[in-house]
Write a structure and sequence with these properties.
Distance between the termini: 41 Å
Number of strands: 0
Structural class: mainly alpha
Order of helices and strands: HHHH
Oligomer: single chain
């Protein structure tokens, strides 16, 4: 079972990839024959916000799920190329890195006597 934070990470990974698509379409329209900048003006800030949200959620989930430094670094790097957040999310899900957070270990007090 996933916790709320991990669910937000999954949503952010998908939303960041979708915003990449919108931004790429906006750039094609901007630099293509229509020459209209509206798509970039709309999707640029949206993508920027989702990019930052994804990075913050990667750090939070990595800490909670106790990801390795390498897995965390790859997740952060996947925010840069278009659609890589989708690939990472699926990869992490297949490896059960997005399951419930491990239960904290509880120390029993030492017996007296």
């Amino acid at each position: 079972m996933r916790d709320k934070l991990t669910g937000l990470f999954v949503v952010a990974a998908i939303a960041e990839a979708c915003s990449w698509f919108g931004l790429l379409v906006g750039m094609v329209v901007k630099y293509g024959p229509p020459g209209n900048e509206l798509g970039v003006k709309i999707f640029g800030p949206i993508h920027g916000g989702l990019f930052v949200a994804y990075l913050v959620l990667v750090l939070a989930v990595a800490r909670r799920q106790r990801w390795s430094l390498l897995a965390t670094g790859v997740a952060l790097a996947c925010a840069v190329p278009p659609f890589a957040t989708l690939a990472y999310e699926r990869w992490a899900r297949r490896r059960r890195m997005l399951g419930a957070a491990p239960a904290p270990t509880r120390r029993d007090p030492a017996p007296v006597g």
